[in-house]
Specification:
The chain is an alpha/beta fold. It folds into 2 domains: 123 residues, Rossmann fold; 32 residues, no CATH class. Helix content is 20%, strand content 35%. The chain has 3 helices and 8 strands. The strands form 2 sheets. It has a 6-stranded mixed β-sheet with strand order 3-2-1-4-5-6, sandwiched between helices. Strands 7-8 form a two-stranded antiparallel sheet. Helix 2 links the parallel strand 4 and strand 5. The longest helix is centred in the first third of the chain and has 16 residues. The protein is globular and about 50 Å long.
Length: 164
């Protein structure tokens, strides 16, 4: 409803957001099919890297998404796995705004309650969780556990075993 009956460009943040994005896009397509107006959806992908082990590196790397100029004039829905401090998403939004999209909304499956938060809140959030490191449903710990169909907390023993 927020976007209206305009076409939507879903920008999936890889790698952790791919399962949520696929499920969300499928759900939105079903809503569109069952309404009196059809909303066209396109999906593009961008990869952000900001973690090593369970620690934020403090800097965000954008990998891929070389031609973000295609977002100009579009209604963009950024689909993210987890918003923690909000710094990574703010950096991405700042980068995207340069290309003058018509509208940008952020949908995040999870929002962490963390004392390090800068106050950023996504437009749409699935669940709010404690400040713990979670894996599964495409969320990883050093590329492990993406294949789990559920989300769970990785304990200290697991962190040590899969540390790089």
């Amino acid at each position: 409803k927020d976007i209206g009956y305009s076409d939507i460009m879903a920008l999936c943040v890889l790698k952790g957001g791919y399962k949520f994005c696929a499920d969300l896009v499928e759900h939105l397509k079903n809503i569109s099919r069952n309404s009196d107006r059809f909303v066209s959806m396109k999906v593009d992908f961008i990869r952000l890297k900001s973690y090593r082990n369970d620690q934020s590196m403090g800097e965000m790397q954008i990998i891929g998404g070389d031609d973000l100029s295609t977002l100009a004039g579009k209604n963009v829905l950024i689909v993210e796995d987890v918003v923690g401090t909000g710094r990574t998403m703010k950096a991405l939004l700042s980068n995207i705004e340069k290309y003058k999209p018509n509208m940008v909304k952020v949908a995040s499956l999870l929002v962490k309650r963390t004392p390090r938060s800068d106050g950023f809140r996504p437009d749409y959030a699935g669940f709010e969780i404690p400040n713990l490191f979670v894996v599964g449903y495409a969320l990883d710990y050093n590329e492990y556990f993406r294949d789990l169909n559920h989300i769970c907390v990785i304990n200290e023993h697991g962190k040590e075993k899969y540390r790089v």
